[in-house]
Amino acid sequence: MTVAEKPIANTAATLATVLDAAPIGFLLASSNGTIQHFNKYAERLFGFTKQELLNKNIEVLLPDHIRDAHVAMRNNYIDDAWPRMMGTGRELYAQRKDGSQFPVEIGLGPVDIDGVLHITVTVVDITEKRQLEAQKKSQLEQSHYQELMELSSPLLSVWQGIKVLPLIGTLDSIRTQDAMEKALTCMAEEQIQVLIVDITGVLTVDTMVSDHLIRMATAVRLMGGDCILTGISPEIARTVIQLGVDLSTLHTRSSLADGLALGIRIIETGTRL
Q: pTM (2 decimals)?
């Protein structure tokens, strides 16, 4: 018989050694919630030593505000114990010795030891998993936002040398700034002479958005082009007046059709506004 085939003696000690080598937290609790075993990985997770926790209630490892409620949940589990993950669909947190908390996934399983019911508890720290999920969510939201910006602020070619930038919905400073940068880049790359900014579909504007529109028109003129603002609704006109915003430096027309007619005249005559 080889060494590898030699029967394992002292099962309890061997099992403790195996559990200490596991890369997850492992606890063994009695049916009344006292901790009977606590592996080395759990010591690292929680900051307690095994000696500090033996025969202590398992609630010591939970955030203070849920300890009392957990006693009832623990008793309910004992009444119908079966292997399962704890708190499916809910965010679970454990608490370290220093009082700090961390997100966890917890598995439960009943085990009969010498005719006495015990509960095995596995604890996995999912802090890194949560961080990766949050990072992916942020990247996805940013991607969706960029796609929305592309869809909500398209540059349309309507005549040789003329582009229309239709703005729709609610404007904020970020969206307006994005539209301005896109329009100026397009003017430089495609030698656009007239940019028509149509705000017929805009719900409202504030002082900062108005400032961006003025800056856009100024930048277009500095690049040798003309900027025409069209589609100012009565509601937006009243808001602009109430805010005391001066749009007199902008060339405006009541409708996109009027703005386009002015733009074509500029192209055909070669005159500047």
A: 0.54
